Amino acid sequence: MLSEYFSAVDFLVLKPVILLTLFGVGVMLTDLLLEERHRYLSAVTALVGLGFAGVQMWMIQSQMRQAEVNELEAFRGAVRLDHFGIFFFWIFLISSAIAILLAIRYLEIEQEHHGEYYALILFATVGMILLAIGTDLITLFVSLELMVISVYILTGFLRRDRRSNEAALKYLLLGAFSTGILAYGMSLLYGLSNSTNLEEIAFAISQRPAGDPVVLLAVITVATGLFFKVGAVPFHQWLPDAYEGAPTSITAFMSVGPKAAAFAFLLRMFMLPLGPAREQWLPLLIGVAVATMTLGNLAAVSQSNVKRLLAYSAISHVGYILLGLVSGNDTGLKGIAIYLLVYAFMNMGAFAVVVAMRRRDLIGDEIDDMAGLMYKSPTAAVLMMIFLLSLAGIPPTAGFLGKYFIFLSLIESQHFTLAVIAVLYVAVALYYYFRIVAVMFMREPVDWELPTLAPGIRIALGVTAAMTLIIGLYPEPFIQIVSRTVLP
Amino acid sequence: MSPLMVLFALAKIVVILLVLLTVVAYAVWFERKLLAHMQCRWGPTRVGPHGLLQPLADAIKLLTKEDLTPSEVFPLVYLLAPFLSLVTALLAFAVIPFGPETRVGGMDLFQIADLDIGVLFILSVSSMGVYGIALAGWSSNSKYSLLGGLRSSAQMISYELAIGLSIIGVLLLTGSLSLRAIVENQAGAYWGFLPRWNIIPQFAGFVCFLVAAIAETNRLPFDLPEAETELVAGYHTEYSSMKFGMFFMAEYANMVTASCLATLLFFGGWHGPVFGPAILQALLPLLWFSLKVLFFLFLYVWIRATLPRFRYDQLMAFGWKFLVPLALGNLVVTSLVLAIRWS
Amino acid sequence: MYQLLFFVFAGAAVGFAINLLLQRHPIHSALSLIGVMASLASLYLMLGAEFIAAAQIIVYAGAIMVLFVFVIMLLNAGEEERTQRSRFAKYLGLPLILLLVTSMAAVIYRQVPQDAMVRFGDFPGRTADIGRRLFLNYLLPFEVVSIVILVAIIGTVVLARKDSETEGPGKAVVSEK
């Protein structure tokens, strides 16, 4: 119908993405017509766009079920919509929706309420989705750029805040540098295989002799770029500053959406084109994972700023997730998927409470600002405790599930030392998460400014808390979903 | 390549350069004379009949004048700028075909090189030409020069966009970037009498191209980089002797290039009625080509004599808010029509 | 002949790149960068990628770098002031970088078979080939790039816009007119 070169399937697979792009442009156009006090309508428009994309994906999924196909390939192998990609699609949708909900009141307080915020989130979502379903180096690279450029801008969105400016600049410079290294690695992969298709690259690499130094060079450069994007040690320096300086709603967003997208990218690269070279990257990955857990957990102990603390905790979580790839078996990959899903809810929830702490004259992102939250707003305090418990991985909450699968996979694949180290670090994590809890419950409040529990923030808190508990208490359906997403 | 071919190619380059430089010199005379007549003056009359030897006198004057270098300039860049200007201006002629393919011993007579990307080559060379002016303005270390340089770089970037977009319509019709292919595509006539020149289907593109080309060559009414009433002489205020002469030559060479390009892209290049004996048949296309180029040179002078200079903000607004949308609209319509015709 | 030209242009590219770092004045650095771009374009041309070469000149040397030069001129940026440079970088970083570069070069030179190397002029770089690739095989990334550019424009506008009079503590910015 479209032409002799492209079919209806190409169009079908891209429908959600096209919808999001159109809504992104639409938000910017309608925002011009809105008065300052009606800006929240832009947020509503963006949410509607996300909703449409979700419905569209739901329809595609049901069509796929009916036709009994597991994957749709489109645009001459540029993208492949499989269960892996669909799973990540939903994570992105959730994180974008929550980032929009959190932002409405927050940006008003910061006096930077512009429609571009919502448009950029939608464009970043487009990039993330394509990153998760892309199977071609060029598509992946371009989508990665779309995602990170949107996030650079969002990081610097508070133009009058020096921390925000610094964060954006630092993130941009380091990000551009790491992208350069990644592009170099990709060029090596292309040179080795004369193809940009991931599967053809995998085939070409499997034909090379074991321990081939060129493959090693490609692995190191590609891995460096990818590790930077997920924020693994030693490429983590940008992360605490960017998380601290960015608007809190964006910190929440980038700790979940773009990070999950980077992990989707990383998994695709390590499982497909670099898969045959597993012997070569395994020691590298183990070193990075252990270093990441160590540094993240130890540095988090001494933080006095909640956003910074959560940033270091985010680094430590990256370490745990990478362990799933170290074991590399089905349990491990399932573990990664469920970890990312759970992490989306609990981390966004925790940041939602931090967003609520921003009040008219109070920045509220120091741990001391949390003092006596129990007396001011018991709901916020209790929810924060649930999120922190979940982040630490304590049983009735969802966080336990993710860690459980990762540890199980480590034991299954005979990495006992790693399993012990990982469990030990949970104890460290408990210590610093409980510092926040202690301040909230034990200390007297310094001021009586109540947290801003605007409707958007309430919805976000409700959804995240509910999901954190539901996944923790009744995990079967989620484990089922996840077990289909495992990449070959 | 055999040594003979290399020799032939070199000879061709030398001949074309000589012809071009003569044309440039007489373009100055042509302009002065024409402008004078339009303003009821005589123009140059003293050197030779009708002042025909005036260009020669000018050249001698420029060569023998003292070459001043102001003390506060940035020497290397100051020296580099005029060369850059002139070289890029002359380089564009490497791909301009003056007549139909006429091979003598396997070498084409009327074109130095028929590149597959001819149009792009001219665009890229002319885009490098900005540096000559911008760097001259900056390295002179004088406020008038700097303002001229700033204006020219902003102006040329803006209008380059319009030029590129306006040409794409022609490229779509032809399906090639080679200038020779573009001209050959314009052979024949509509309904037996109307020449199949691109100006007919691409009138909007032509208007856009013409205006942008005038701006790109820094000619009136867009000569803000050297607006003498406000900036003394703009970017070349601090230049003297032959260095100034090089800027001067570059400007006129650019005019000739723009006229050639307009002829090739929109006015059917060398196409025209061809008749008579074989030797005439070979030479007539050259004549038609020269006449058309001359027409555009005349147009340049005519416009200069007629229109006053724009204000700077008007210039930018005109470029971005009128020309670029016009070129884009032309592009959309052209591709739509072509898509419908093909399907 | 081709090999000689290759070394000339490759050497020029590297030389300009090093000069870019050593120069103190931003304009000289910018000019060196233009030199790098032009040398790269020549290399592309030798490979037979005429379109890419022209695009490289038009886009990088002709458009982007003109903006660089424009901004440097507009700000009237002077020579950079060199602070005491890190000794750590000098005595440890430089040798390490040289080691890295030589080992990478050695690996690529030794391990990639001769017949897998690119030969001069056999690159399918004619305009029509590029167009076919771009609009068939790589249509999706091509379209995504347009969104990337849109996002970049939005970003510039968002981050560089003036404060309006009605909103924000930035009211102190008095209208300049």
Provide a descriptive summary of the structure in words.
The complex is a heterotrimer of chains A (488), B (343) and C (177). Chain A is mainly alpha-helical and 488 residues long. Helix content of chain A is 77%, strand content 1%. Chain A has 19 helices and two strands. Chain A has helices at 8-33, 40-67, 83-110, 116-133, 137-155, 162-193, 198-207, 213-230, 238-245, 248-271, 278-301, 306-327, 330-357, 373-376, 378-392, 398-412, 416-442, 455-473, 476-484; strands at residues 72-74, 79-81. In chain A, helix 8 runs antiparallel to helix 10 (248-271) and helix 15 (378-392) packs antiparallel against helix 17 (416-442). Chain B is 66% helix and 2% strand. In chain B, the strands form two sheets. A two-stranded antiparallel ribbon of chain B has the order 1-2. Chain B contains eleven helices and four strands. In chain B, helix 7 runs antiparallel to helix 9. Chain B is mainly alpha-helical and 343 residues long. Chain B has one domain. In chain B, a hairpin with a 2-residue loop joins strand 1 and strand 2 (107-108). Chain C folds into two domains: 1-79 and 91-124, Four Helix Bundle (Hemerythrin (Met), subunit A) (Up-down Bundle), CATH 1.20.120; 126-163. Chain C has 177 residues and is mainly α. Chain C has helices at residues 2-22, 26-47, 50-75, 87-111, 127-137, 139-160.
